[in-house]
Write a structure and sequence with these properties.
- It is a single chain.
- The protein has helices at 12-23, 40-54, 71-82, 96-109, 131-141, 157-164, 170-173, 185-199, 205-214, 219-232, 237-247, 251-260, 263-274, 283-293, 300-312, 329-339, and strands spanning 29-33, 58-63, 114-119, 148-154, 176-179, 316-320, 323-326.
- The chain folds into 3 domains: 12-179, Rossmann fold; 185-247; 252-339, Arc Repressor Mutant, subunit A.
- It contains 16 helices and 7 strands.
- Helix 1 (12-23) packs across helix 2 (40-54), helix 8 crosses helix 9 and helix 12 (251-260) crosses helix 16 (329-339).
- Helix content is 54%, strand content 11%.
- Strands 2-3-4-1-5 form a 5-stranded parallel β-sheet.
- Bound molecules: adenosine-5'-diphosphate and magnesium ion (MG).
- Adenosine-5'-diphosphate binds at residues 7-9, 11, 34, 36-42, 219-220, 223.
C-alpha cells in the first residue's frame, strides 16, 4: 500500500521562531493574526504543537469556533483532549467553569510547561455573556505565567483589538503579535509536486503563481482549485482558478451587504479601498465625500460615525492609528468592480 499523500507544507521556521520567543524572550503570550483560511489552525496543529511536544511541553488546543454558542464547551473539549493521557478525577455535577478549573489544575499538576493554543479567540468578544470565560481564563493564566505559554490566534483584526482592548483583560494586552506569512514559491512547488504524485500531470509554476494570485493567495482556495483541477483534468490551473472563483462567488451576499449600507458608509468604504485606508478624516477626504453627497461641507463627526458603524459590522478594521483595512479582500474587489455601478 502506498502512503497517503501529504498536502501539508510545513512552516517549520515559523514554529521554531514562536518556540524561541517563548523560550528565550520573557514572552508568555503571542498573538498570531491572519484572515480566515490562511492556515492558522493547520499551523498550530501540524507545526507548532508537535514541535512544542518534542521540546517537552504538554499542549492543549482550544478552538472557540468549535462550539460557537458556548466557549466553555470549547474549552472543555480542548482541555479534555489534552488531559486524555492524564488521570481525570470524577467530575461529578460541577458547573462548567469548575470543570475548566479542574482540567487546568490537572494539566498544571503534570509539571511540564503548558502551551495553550486558543484559536479564534476574538470570538470571546462577540457576546457579553462570554465575559465570565474571559475572566476565568485570566484567573487561570495570570497567576501561572511561569508555567503557561499562550498562543492566541484570530481571524479578525477588529475582533482581536476589541478583545485585547478590554480594560480588564490585561492578560491579552501583554501579548506580542506575530504575523502568519503568506505562502510563496516554495509552497507552490511543493503543492505542484504532490499534485504530480496524485495525477502524473506536471504543472507550470508560473501558471500556479497566477492561479494563486487569482484566489488572493488564500491556501484554502488554492487547495480548492487543485481539487477542481484533479477532476477537471489537464494542467490549465490558471483557467481552473477562474472557474473556481466563479463557482464560489459571494456575489449575492456582497450585493445584500452593499445595498444595506448607508450612502455615507459606501463612500467611506470606497475611499478606504482606493486610498489604502489612510487620510479618511483629512480636509481633502471630507470635501471629496461632501461633493459626492451633494453637500457643501462635512465635519469629521459623521465620518467618524460611518467608520464606527463599518467597524462594528466587521467591514473594516483599524490596523494602525488612523489607518483602516477591509476585513474581506474579496468584498473590496467586488466593491471596486461592481458596487460602484
Ligand atoms: N501549511 C499548509 N500546507 C498546505 N495547505 C495548507 C496549509 N495551511 C493551510 N492549508 C490549506 O488551507 C486550508 C485552511 O487552513 P486553516 O488552517 O483551516 O485556516 P485558518 O485556520 O487560518 O482559517 C486547509 O484546510 C488547507 O487546505
Ligand atoms: Mg482556523
Amino acid at each position: 500500500m502506498t502512503a497517503p499523500l501529504n498536502w501539508h507544507f510545513p512552516r517549520a521556521e515559523l514554529a521554531e521562531k514562536v518556540m524561541d520567543r517563548f523560550k528565550i524572550g520573557a514572552t508568555t503570550a503571542l498573538t498570531l493574526f491572519a484572515p480566515r483560511r490562511m492556515g492558522k489552525t493547520e499551523f498550530v496543529n501540524k507545526d507548532l504543537l508537535p514541535l512544542a511536544e518534542e521540546q517537552g511541553y504538554i499542549t492543549a488546543y482550544v478552538n472557540f469556533w468549535d462550539r460557537k454558542q458556548s466557549p466553555a464547551d470549547s474549552l472543555i473539549v480542548g482541555l479534555t483532549k489534552a488531559t486524555a493521557s492524564l488521570t481525570l478525577e470524577d467530575k461529578g455535577e460541577a458547573d462548567k467553569l469548575e470543570v475548566i478549573q479542574q482540567l487546568f489544575d490537572l494539566l498544571l499538576k503534570d509539571g511540564r510547561q503548558l502551551l495553550l493554543a486558543l484559536d479564534e479567540v476574538q470570538h470571546l468578544a462577540t457576546d457579553k455573556k462570554f465575559e465570565p470565560i474571559v475572566y476565568a481564563l485570566r484567573g487561570i493564566i495570570d497567576p501561572n505565567r511561569d508555567q503557561i505559554r499562550v498562543l492566541y490566534t484570530g481571524s479578525s483584526r477588529g475582533g482581536l483589538r476589541k478583545l485585547f482592548a478590554r480594560r480588564n483583560a490585561a492578560l491579552f494586552s501583554s501579548s506580542q503579535q506575530i504575523d502568519l506569512p503568506t505562502f510563496g514559491r516554495g509552497y507552490l512547488e511543493f503543492t505542484a509536486d504532490v499534485f504530480n504524485q496524485a495525477t502524473g500531470r506536471a504543472l507550470n509554476i508560473n501558471e500556479c503563481a497566477k492561479a494563486f494570485r487569482t484566489v488572493k493567495k488564500v491556501p484554502y482556495d488554492f487547495r480548492g482549485v487543485i481539487d477542481m483541477l484533479i477532476t477537471h483534468g489537464g494542467t490549465d490551473i490558471a483557467g481552473v482558478a477562474e472557474l473556481y472563483l466563479a463557482d464560489n462567488s459571494q456575489e449575492d451576499t456582497y450585493r445584500v451587504s452593499w445595498d444595506s449600507l448607508k450612502p455615507m458608509d459606501k463612500l467611506v468604504l470606497q475611499y478606504i479601498i482606493m486610498r489604502g485606508g489612510v487620510g479618511i478624516y483629512t480636509v481633502e477626504a471630507r470635501s471629496h465625500l461632501a461633493e459626492q453627497l451633494g453637500l457643501d461641507v462635512l465635519d469629521t463627526a459623521p465620518v467618524q460615525n460611518a467608520v464606527n458603524r463599518l467597524r462594528r459590522d466587521g467591514h473594516i478594521a483599524s490596523v494602525a492609528q488612523g489607518q483602516y483595512e477591509m476585513e474581506d479582500p474579496y468584498f473590496a474587489d467586488w466593491i471596486v468592480t461592481v458596487g460602484t455601478q
